[in-house]
Amino acid sequence: MVVKPKVLLMMTLDTKEQETRFVSDCLTESGVEVYLLDASIRKSIDGGAAITPDQIAAAAGTTMEEIRALNHEGKCQAVMIEGAIKCALELHKRVGFSGILGAGGSMGTTLGTALMRAFPFGLPKVMVSTMASGMTKGFVGTKDIVMVNSVCDIAGLNTVTRSVFRNGALAVAGMAHGYRASVASDKPLVAISTLGTTDKCTARIRQSLEGHGFEVMVFHTLGTGGMIMDEIVRDQNVAVAVDLSLVEVNDFLHQGLCSAGPDRCKAALAKGVPTIFAPGNIDFLVAGPMEDALARFPGKRYHIHNAALTAVRSEAAEFKRLAEHMAELIGEAKGPVTFYVPLLGFSAHDSEQGHLHDTTLPPVFAAHLKKAMPAGVPVVEFPYHINDEQFADAVTEQVLTFSRLASA
Asked: Order of strands, edge to edge, in the sheet holding 310-313?
């Protein structure tokens, strides 16, 4: 007997019954078993849902009558999200989903992706949404969610929506048929932050550590990458954190586009994970197109990275504030911390071949960092650029040292 993969479908029968039945049929035709989660608020419809609105309300400690009485779409949805996540995770424990598919407008997308974010990395997640052509960061968050632009509103079936819905169903069904739950590696795990402008350094460290038997995860720090790294550190057994790229911290302090918020870098420090910091990519703040950079950061030095992003040269004042902020964070560390500073430049932009090179500024950061840093935390200066092999090798050796100390 062939066991079909199980897919959780999240749609609302009260407003999208026709569309829900079409998507469900597409999934069934693709050889998966469908479990419908119906988070309808306006009315309850007997549509064979595996998780009904009443069950969702009960899981949230209330009833549908009480939810409707709130008479506020945002408050109603918050309760439904709470209950839906509890119901979906409980059903997942019993049957084991191999994929999740949702379809909706802004409200359905908010609920659907909130539920998806509660599920582990690797489990296929597809959201067909009117919001998928922009403003996706808040929906995807730190998880591996595929968002598909619905093109038309999700209001009836037509030649466009039939194709989009069918493609979404085929996508999640195909992934579900091939899904295998991730198995944790028995290798010690190192988490590294980077950008393309420090990739030479990161690549050498990664290759060296893999040669020493480590598993290495690299995170791209453009606003969510560092948040994902911190989440991995919190949730998994990370041996060493190597935070080479602090652009998200610099942007948080100075209103750049790639801010990862006030909690960036705290996960490893609070957990006691041995951490190596370097000031990679703090030589610039991130702005949008050039007109945005001029308005946001007037009177600075600029480099057009591409049509969408402009690098804006950080100066001594930004460096000093960042040094003080990092020292304050590190003061709460529960494990060993080392801060490495390459004195010849912090990114490819801040190099002899770059467009924002300034040899006077790295020593300013190093001096202020040493002054602000809590006692006992080494600030080690190197006469190299961050992308020089010697600097990468020094970081690698410190990872090995931390790892040996932990296993001693």
From this structure: 284-287, 310-313, 302-304
Q: Which has the closest alpha carbon to 153: 109, 116, 183?
A: 109
Q: With contact defined as beta carbons under 8 Å apart, do 363 and 403 qualify?
A: no
Pairing mode of beta strands 33-37, 99-104: unpaired
Asked whether the predicted pLDDT for residue 408 surpasses 80, the reply is no
Closest to 102 measured CA to CA, from 93, 89, 111: 111
CB 249 within 8 A of CB 312: no
**Hey, what are 168's tokens?**
């979404």
Q: Rounded to whole angstroms, how far apart are CA atoms 205 and 185? A: 19
- Residue 96 makes CB contacts below 8 A (sequence gap 6+) with 6
- 160: helix, coil or strand? helix
Give dist(CA 31, CA 227) in Å, integer: 36
Averaged pLDDT for residues 20-24: 97
Q: For residue 86, what is the enclosing H or E element?
A: helix 73-95
332-378 per-position pLDDT tens digit: 999 999 999 999 999 999 999 999 999 999 999 999 999 999 999 99
Q: Indicate where the chain has its CATH 3.40.50.12020 domain(s).
A: 6-178
Residue 35 · residue 10 · CB < 8 Å: no
Place of tokens 């469908």: 34
The torsion of the CA quartet 345, 350, 353, 354, rounded to 10 degrees, works out to: 170
Q: Report pTM.
A: 0.87
Question: At the top level of CATH, which class does the domain 6-178 belong to?
Answer: alpha beta
Superfamily for domain range 189-407:
Uncharacterised protein family UPF0261, NC domain (3.40.50.12030)
Rounded CA gap, 130 and 151, in Å? 7
Residue 378 CB partners (closer than 8 Å, separation 6+): 338, 339
The C-alpha atoms of residue 233 and residue 216 are separated, in whole angstroms, by 12
What pLDDT shows up at residue 127? 98
Task: Give the tens place of pLDDT for each residue, 261-277.
Answer: 999 999 999 999 999 99
Helix (H) or strand (E) segment spanning residue 278: strand 275-280
Separation CA 315–CA 282 (nearest Å) = 10
- CATH 3.40.50.12030 location in the chain: 189-407
> Which residues lie closer than 8 Å to 352 by C-beta, 6 or more apart?
none
Left, alpha or beta for 135 (phi > 0: left; psi -120 to 50: alpha)?
left
Is residue 292 within 8 A of residue 354, CB to CB? The reply is no
